[in-house]
Design goal:
Elements: E1 2-7, H1 11-22, E2 27-33, H2 36-45, E3 50-54, H3 62-72, E4 78-83, H4 88-97, E5 101-104, H5 109-120, E6 125-126, H6 128-138, H7 155-165, H8 170-177, H9 181-195, H10 200-209
Parallel strand pairs: 1-2, 1-3, 3-4, 4-5, 5-6
Helix pairs in contact: 2-3, 3-4, 7-9, 7-10, 8-9
GO biological process, one term: phosphorelay signal transduction system
Keywords: DNA-binding, Phosphoprotein, Transcription, Transcription regulation
Pfam family, one: Response_reg
């Protein structure tokens, strides 16, 4: 079972999230938190795999909570951040703080479930709706030159990396390149290994930071 904590200051939102996640046979919502500070406390006291956390909360916002959880909890659960398009400043901070995934609050429930499962496996998932707008803004600072490690990628791996950065899912990349979805997963895994990155989220950040894809 994927032991999960829900953190949101709105009771109806917590109820809706619990309804979605508890319906899955492999996910168990073990507790809830009403703000970031309580989320950190419960992450320390409970044995959790994933924290689903709203980025805008009182007492301690989601970004600060993610940073506390990733830095002070051992072993640290993965964090899936819930966001809306009007809190970009929180989203950018959450990327840097170590969130493993991002899902818009109005996205399909299946995407949240997929994000929780991916996070529990040490992978990352960014809602495709978030990628193009939010990650471009995250990368509007001057890009760093592409490191020499980039030369380790094959042309196809680089192509897949660019598609990932533009917000395409593995299935969409497979259709675009006319290959199997399993082949795409292999290319993503190899790109992560060669670049020394942990999750798909880090691939997206890497691509924009190093101007591998355009931010315009």
């Amino acid at each position: 079972m994927i032991r999960t904590l829900i953190a949101d200051d709105q009771e109806p939102a917590r109820w809706a999230l619990r309804l979605v996640l508890d319906a899955e046979p492999d996910i168990e919502v073990v507790d809830e938190a009403v703000d970031g500070a309580e989320a950190v406390d419960k992450a320390r006291s409970l044995c959790l795999d994933v924290v689903v956390l709203d980025l805008r909360m009182p007492r301690m916002d989601g970004v600060a909570a993610i940073r506390r959880i990733t830095e002070s909890v051992t072993p640290a659960p993965a964090v899936v951040a819930l966001t809306t398009f009007d809190v970009d400043e929180y989203l950018f901070g959450a990327l840097q703080a170590g969130a493993a995934g991002f899902v818009l609050k109005d996205s399909e429930p299946a995407l949240l479930v997929e994000a929780v499962r991916a996070a529990s496996k040490g992978q990352g998932l960014i809602d495709p709706q978030v990628t193009r707008r939010a990650i471009r803004r995250f990368a509007q600072t001057a890009p760093r030159p592409a490191p020499t490690g980039l030369t380790l990628l094959t042309p196809r791996e680089l192509e897949v990396l660019k598609h990932v950065a533009r917000g395409l899912s593995n299935a969409e990349i497979a259709r675009a390149l006319t290959v199997g979805e399993g082949t795409v997963k292999t290319h993503v895994a190899r790109a992560l290994a060669k670049l020394g990155l942990r999750t798909r989220v880090h691939l997206v950040i890497y691509a924009y930071e190093h101007a591998i894809v355009s931010t315009t």
